[in-house]
Design goal:
Blueprint: E1 2-6, H1 10-21, E2 25-29, H2 32-41, E3 43-46, E4 52-54, E5 59-60, E6 71-74, H3 81-95, E7 98-101, H4 107-116, E8 123-127, E9 130-132, E10 138-140, E11 146-150, H5 157-164, E12 173-176, H6 180-201, H7 206-210, H8 212-231, H9 238-247, H10 258-265, H11 271-285, H12 290-299
Parallel strand pairs: 1-2, 1-6, 2-5, 3-10, 6-7, 11-12
Antiparallel strand pairs: 3-4, 8-11, 9-10
């Protein structure tokens, strides 16, 4: 299978590297500065799941350079989606590739369907706590990682079969889900609460576990998001929402979200993609989400990086 990973942040390099490690033909589509770094420093993963490195990496910086791709894995931040869409559209039209987005949130699914066609967009998401060091190498800090995927259209079962066949040899949890949209919503619920609260308090997740008031705030985000999921046709039981809330305090106390890590570095945040997206869905259905709206207001000044 010929796989192109669009984006080479920690998430894209980690899962792209794991696929490369199994022997799949994996290349990366990146900006020129990142391409130069990858060519100089190589791809390297430092992880409890096993270290991996490869010096010679195939990289592209222009859509017109890309040929013979079966699957495009879109692993950019939400705030880069608008810039990535024309590139994805060109590559999909040139190659006929399927597109599997690993973005947080949910609004990107419809945007991609409009760009490349409903039959070409798979469902997918990833879970990992990782960052890039100064050399552009992945530092994976929690004990495991997960990539879930599944068909959103009947024409996608063959490409899903091909990806599923990789799972026996890959050093991450790679799981196919029949009801992938529900799983994507559950991840959206989790990450909106986890990233929002850790970033708003500017502290790691242990402070959620040790402060009842903080955990109550996070739990309210989960239940507000659960209401939005139900408005969008995704039914979640009270037990499922409670499980998502409890998972927020299941990490080692020093663990934190990628959004909080970005905030520490003074980088842009996905607040508009995550919390802003939730508010747009709420407005569409005529409901209110006051806790999400409050967190959105707190984080919005950091959207483009640390305020001057």
């Amino acid at each position: 299978m010929n796989i192109l990973v669009h984006g080479a942040g920690a998430l894209g390099v980690y899962f792209g590297g794991r696929l490369l490690e199994t022997g799949e033909n994996v290349s990366f589509f990146v900006r020129e500065r990142r391409a130069a770094q990858l060519q100089q420093e190589g791809l390297k993963i430092n992880s409890p799941e096993g270290n991996f490195e490869q010096q010679d990496i195939t990289v592209y910086t222009k859509p017109e350079e890309v040929n013979d791709i079966d699957l495009l894995i879109l692993a950019v931040k939400g705030y880069h989606l608008a810039d990535a869409l024309p590139q994805v559209q060109t590559i999909a039209e040139r190659t006929g590739a399927y597109v599997m987005p690993l973005l947080n949130g949910i609004e990107h699914v419809e945007a991609l369907k409009q760009a490349v066609g409903e039959e070409k967009v798979l469902g997918g998401f990833a879970s990992i706590i990782a960052t890039l060091n100064e050399r552009g190498h992945v530092v994976h800090s929690n004990a495991n990682s997960l990539l879930k995927f599944g068909a959103l259209h009947p024409e996608q079962h063959n490409i899903c079969d091909q990806l599923e066949a990789v799972q026996a040899n890959i050093k991450t949890k790679l799981k196919r889900e029949e009801h992938i949209l529900k799983h994507m919503w559950k991840k959206y619920i989790f990450i909106t609460a986890f990233s929002g609260v850790t970033s708003a308090m500017q502290l790691p997740s242990g402070y959620m576990a040790s402060n009842d008031a903080t955990f109550t705030t996070a739990k309210k985000v989960v239940f507000e998001m659960g209401m939005l999921a139900e408005k969008e046709g995704i039914a979640l039981s009270t037990e499922e929402k409670e499980a998502i809330a409890n998972s927020l305090i299941s990490f080692p106390k020093e663990s934190t979200s990628s959004m909080h890590q970005d905030m520490r570095k003074g980088l842009p945040l996905e607040v508009e993609h995550l919390h802003g997206g939730a508010l747009r869905i709420a407005r569409k259905h005529g409901v209110t989400t006051p806790v999400i709206e409050t967190i959105y207001g707190i984080l919005k000044p950091y959207e483009n990086g640390r305020p001057e």
